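Sample entry (700 residues):
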Amino acid sequence: MSRTLGAWGRARRGTLLRAWRERLARREARAEDPPGLAPPVLLDALLDSIPVGLFFIDRALRYVRANRVLADMNGVPLEQLLGRSLWEVVPLLADRLAPLYQRVFATGEALLDQEISGVTAAAPGERRHWRVSYYPIRGPTGEVALVGGVLMDITDLKRGLLALEERQGKLAETGQRLEAILETAVDGIFTCDERGRIQRANSAAGRIFGYVPEALVGRDVRRLLARPYRRELVRFFLSEEERGPGREWEVRGRRKDGRLFPLELSVGEVRLPTGGRLFVGTVRDISARRRSEQAQALFVETGTLLAQSLELPTTLKNLAEVVVSHLSDYCLVDLMQADGVLRRHQVAAREESRRAALEATLSWTITPREGSPVTRVVRGHEAEFFAPVTPAWLDAVAEHPAHRALLGSLELQAVAILPLKARGHLLGLMSIGWTRLPSARLSEELEIAQGVADRAAMALDNARLYQEAQDAVRMREDVVAIVSHDLRNPLNAITLSASSLLRRVDVDARTHQTAQRICAAAERASRLIRDLLDFTQARVGGIPIQPAALDFHEHVRRVVDEVRLAWPGRVIHVTTEGEGQGAWDEGRLAQVITNLVGNALQHSPTASAVTVSVRGSPGGMRLDVHNEGPPILAEALPTLFEPYRRGTGTGERGGSLGLGLFITRQIIQGHGGSISVNSQPGDGTTFVVRLPRHPGEPLV
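Predicted structure, serialized as C-alpha cells:
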C-alpha cells in the first residue's frame, strides 16, 4: 500500500509543481503585473490557490513562508504561523519532523514521499495521515538556506486503502475457507460454463474420476458420463428455465481408465450479474452403496431360498445355486460326519459342462490330514483364501490321483474354504472357486461369501434338527403303533375272561363286581389304545374315512343312549331338527359324538344337564354339544385341539392322554367339516360341529 501511495504522491506532486512553474513563467512573461497586484501579493495568491500545503523552513526550523492550505492543516491561522517554530505550530509532531529538516540542511539532498501520521490542532483527537516531500533551497553562494516542502493530506485515501485491504483480507480468508471446504469435501464438486466445460474441480472430483483436478479443467463434463446419460445433461444445459436448486440423477460415470461405475450427480445453475450462467455440480461415487445393497439383496435371496424347505438335499441345492449365481464359478458343500470325515453332498458350477465333472465327486469322502488346507479350516474354524492356486496347493488338497486330475481340469485361479458353523459346532465346509482372480474388492467378496455361509449353516442346522425331530416323531409313532397293536390281544383276552365270569351264574357277588371292574378297566384301556392308533394314523397320513348312507338324527340318538349307559344318573337332552339324511362314516362319527358328549359330562357339575342339538339344513348338518360349568381358560383355547392337551379338571372319571379332541377334529376334517368352541363365564361351553351332507360338497 505504501508503494501505491508513493507513486500516487509523486505523480500528484509533480503535477502541482509543474503547474506552479508554468503559472510563474506566464506571470514573468507579461510586460507588467495586473493592476493593484505587486509581485509579493501575486506570489501569495499563487501559493493559496494550490490545493496542497506549501512552506519554507529556515535553519532555526521556523516557518518563513506558507500557504493557507498548510495553515489549515496545522490548525493555526496563517498570520500566526510565520516566524514560529515547529514546536510552536505542531508540538505533537515536531520531534519527528525536526530530524528530517536537519537532514536536508546537512546533506543538501531532497527527501521525497515521507509518510507522517499524527494529531494537529486542526482536528484534536483525530489521527490523520500526510505525505510530504522536502527540497533544499540554496542561497546565492550555493549553501542550503531554506527547506521547502509540499504536504498532502492523504487521510481519506489512507482510510480507503485500509478498508480495501481489510476487504481484500476478508475475501482472501473467505476464499481460503472455501478452498479448504472444497478440498476436504468427500463429494466431488465442480463448476462449468454453458457449454459444459469444467472451470474448477476439487480433489474429490479428480479422485472419483481418476484424474488430478487440474486435468479436469477445460474437459467436457459430459465425457465423464456413460453415453446414455449425456443427452439428458445437454438438455439441462440448453434449457433457459429457472431451476432453483437443480437436478439430481443416478448415472454411470466413466473413470480415466474407461471403467464404468454408479454415480450420483447433482447439477444446479447460478445466474451471474453479467447475464451469464454458471453451473455447479456435485458427484458422489455410490459404488460402495450399490455393493452393500447388492449384498443385502443377496442375503435376503439366500435366506428366502434356504427357508423354502427344511429338507437337507433341497437346502444344499439352493445354497450351491445361489453361490454360483452371484459369487463364484464353483461351489462344493461337504458335511461333517460323526466319525470326523467330510462327505460331499452338493456341487454346482456356472458352466454346465463343469457341473457334470464335479458330480462325480458326490460319492467321495475327505479325511482331514496333516498339511492339508482343509485340515487347517476344520481345526481353526476360520475361512482361508488361496490365490493364485499353485500346483503345490492342488497337491496338498488332493485326496488321490483322480481328485488331483479333476482339480487341475477346473482351471482354478482362486479358492476360498469357508467353515459352516452353527451354535458353536462345525457342520461342514463350503468351498468356492474362481477361474479368474477376484476383483480388487476381494475382502468385500469374502465377507459376503462368509455371510452366505453363516446363513447356510443356520439353515443346515435347522434342517438337521428338523430331520432329527422327524425321525424321533416317526420312531415314537412306530413304537406307539407297535405297542398299541400288541396290547390289543392281551386286552381282548382280559375282556373275554371278565365277560365270561359275568355270564356265569355260579359266581358270588364279590367276584361279579370284580369282573365288572375288570371289564370297565379293559374298556378304558382299549379306548386309549384306539386313540393312540388313531393319533398315529392322523400324523402319518390322516384318519381314513369311509362314508356311507346314514340318518344323522337317528345315529346321534343311538350313540347318546350308549353314553348314558356309561354315565348312569346324568341327564343328557337330545333335540333334532330338519333333514338328517346324508353320507358319513358311521363308526368315526360315533367317536366324535362319544368324545364330545363324554367330554361335556366330564367337565360339568354332576347335577347339571348336557344338551345335544342337531339341526339339518340344505347346506349340511350342525351338531352342538353344550354343558354348564366353569369356562375353558382363555390361554388354553388356541391349543385346545392339539394332541396331548388335557383339561384342568377331570370330573368323576379318570383322565386321558389328551388325544380325544385332536382325533375328533381329524375325523371332522376328514369329512370336510369344521369344529369350533365357545366358552364364556355364565354361558357354559359349546362345541359346534359343521359337516357337509356328502363327501366333496363345500361346507356352508
